[in-house]
Amino acid sequence: MTLTEELIALESSLGAHNYKPLDVALVRGDGVYVYDVDGKRYLDCLSAYSAVNQGHCHPRILQAMIDQARKLTLTSRAFHNDQLGHFYQEIAELTGAHKVLPMNTGAEAVESAIKAVRKWGYEVKGVEKDRAEIIVCSNNFHGRTMGIVGFSTDPDARAGFGPFAPGFKIVPFGDAEAFERAITPNTVGFLVEPIQGEAGVIIPPAGYFTRVRELCTQHNVTLILDEIQTGLGRTGKLLAEQHEGIEADVTLLGKALSGGFYPVSAVLSNSEVLGVLQPGQHGSTFGGNPLACAVARMALKVLVDEGMIENAAALGPYFPDGLAGIKSNHVKSVRGRGLMLAIDLHPEAGGARQFCYALRDKGILAKDTHTNTIRIAPPLVITKQQIDDALEVFSSVLAA
């Protein structure tokens, strides 16, 4: 038995089987590359679902983490620390936010936004007690907590976990008319991904979010954009909302907010929404801790200083154009924005997973989703030459 097989067997025997990863055991990462236990190098085309936008083990983020870990890691929010205020200031200046609520995971940010927006609905909008409604989209993915899976349309996410909390309406993604029809006087928020990542990198029609923003303003509904995957440069803009020139009332960030070093998330909004939360009504022991803040501050700094967003914008069209040019009977379509891409395969191709294994064998790690789709999201530090190298591998695999 190889070391890889031993490690996979150990996970299988002792771990809950709630994931089905590709059979590769990674031990090291550097920039766009990861290495397995046997020393084989792979081009990472997943970036831990966009948590590693800045590249694996970015040296400046690593140093910030080491420096802060030597001084102070956790105070809880019972006391102030010397990092949190600076984190607030820097992320607010970068994004235009007026108030910030720090949390840990993306799902926590989503849950926090739901709580704050419901409370805003009662205290500011004047919705009757316990009648607040939040509209979400079919095929959404916002996390795995009980509150979130209750409004998922994925049978795997829901089955066996009920009963679920009420207060959510589901409409088709990309259909502004359906959203408008779903709005009632009790509607307090619209929670939506700018691009549906887990669903297979589904991009809404042009003008969708412009119309959604108009409707939210018209009906006094908070627009909550889940930018946990799409934010921080992934689509070639700091935030994906900028592609249509709109501004959300609540923006959710996570994943790349720490460059892959530590769980850090944030709810960005204004005093009207986040101002409804009073001491004791919401919190997190680890949220806003000095280690998380130091890491996030540097993760944001290198994203801007090193031109990673501009790189995603410049190379964004190049990668999908190259993929679309591959002559293959298996490929149905290629789509993407920035460096958030997907290849849809014809059902007759036999599923995307076998192609992901073939890519692995040739030194590229990508991930299948929804049976017939390959997701591609390399770190934003990728170069044109590295994309050319990847295209050669994709061509050989997809044309086989």
Automatic annotation (TrEMBL):
SUPFAM superfamilies: PLP-dependent transferases. PROSITE patterns: AA_TRANSFER_CLASS_3. Pathway: Amino-acid biosynthesis; L-proline biosynthesis; L-glutamate 5-semialdehyde from L-ornithine: step 1/1. Keywords: Aminotransferase, Pyridoxal phosphate, Transferase. Its cofactor is pyridoxal 5'-phosphate. GO terms for molecular function: identical protein binding; ornithine aminotransferase activity; pyridoxal phosphate binding. It comes from the Bacteria. InterPro entries: Aminotrans_3, Aminotrans_3_PPA_site, Class-III_PLP-dep_AT, Orn_aminotrans, PyrdxlP-dep_Trfase, PyrdxlP-dep_Trfase_major, PyrdxlP-dep_Trfase_small. GO terms for biological process: L-proline biosynthetic process. The keyword Cell membrane does not apply. Its EC number is 2.6.1.13. Belongs to the class-III pyridoxal-phosphate-dependent aminotransferase family. This is ornithine aminotransferase. It comes from Pelagibacterium luteolum. The lineage of its organism: Bacteria, Pseudomonadati, Pseudomonadota, Alphaproteobacteria, Hyphomicrobiales.
